[in-house]
Amino acid sequence: MGSVAATPEVSRIRRLTDGEFERMFKSGTFMGEESTHLMYKCILDGKQVAVFVVVAEEEELNYFRNKVKTLQNAKHKKIVGPIAYCDGKTPCVVLNLFKEGTLKDFLLRMRATGKDLDIQQKVRCSRDLADALYFLHRDHKGLLSWHRDLRPENIFMDNDGGCQLANFSISSMLRGPAEQQYRSGPYVVPELNGRGRELAAPATDKSDIYSFGMVLLKLFTNKTALARAEPAAMKEVP
Fold first, then answer.
1. Domains contained in the chain, number
2. Which of 45, 65, 96 delimits the end of a domain?
3. Which residues form the Protein kinase domain (predicted)?
């Protein structure tokens, strides 16, 4: 595991006015959507950025507006955080745009072309993620905590062949810890697998470690963990 800076550097996230958002959004190209947000590629200050426009109820938006101000977290070279946000008419967060996209997108493209990462790049990505997760779990005066949503969609491929971990998820910015629901699927520790139900207990660092192991399985084999479909049958989770 790589070295970690002893004293974290605090970054300031730019707050966009409604006018700045509108000017940025004029250059927007739709990239995709999830249940909590729409994704666009835009231009901000002459640079391409990824913009996540939040889709939520008013109560959740109020929580988002408070939560986004707490994301001025300690910086680490392998952790990606928002570079700007808007909490006005159109709530959104803005990230640097990675040409290769997320780890999920990258692996899908590799599979479609019949290619695979070489072992050196897999090891490098593993070390990058381990370093970022170790840093995230350290107590930097309460600035950082558990990730809670570690999966290939929240991991970005560096332009130089490594990986970077997004230090937030939109879903975690819309609800308090007691209200969050965990996704079902291969990256969630079984005892916290939400499956549409609210959690009875909060996650811990061990929950993230399990998810990290499942990400490594995907990274090295391009397969996910097995889930029991019937008592006498097993199938791969898509």
1. 2
2. 96
3. 10-238
Sign of CA dihedral 91, 95, 98, 99: positive
Instruction: Give the range with max mean pLDDT: 128-137, 177-186, 196-205.
Output: 128-137
As a whole number, mean pLDDT of residues 11-37 equals 87
CA dihedral 80, 83, 86, 91 (to 10 degrees): -20
Residue 55 lies in a domain: yes
Burial (CB < 10 A; 0-12, 13-18, 19+), residue 96, is middle
Question: Using an 8 Å Cβ cutoff, are 205 and 146 in contact?
Answer: yes
What average pLDDT does the chain have? Answer: 77
Q: Which of 76, 96, 116 is the last residue of a domain?
A: 96
Per-residue DSSP letters for 215-230? HHHHHHHS---EEEEE
Q: Does a structural domain hold residue 143? A: yes
Give the residue among 5, 219, 215 at the shortest CA–CA distance from 119: 219
| pLDDT score of 2 | 39
Q: Quote the pLDDT of residue 190.
A: 77
pLDDT at residue 229 in the model: 42
CB 39, CB 32: distance < 8 Å: yes
**Domain assignment of residue 126, given as a range:** 103-236
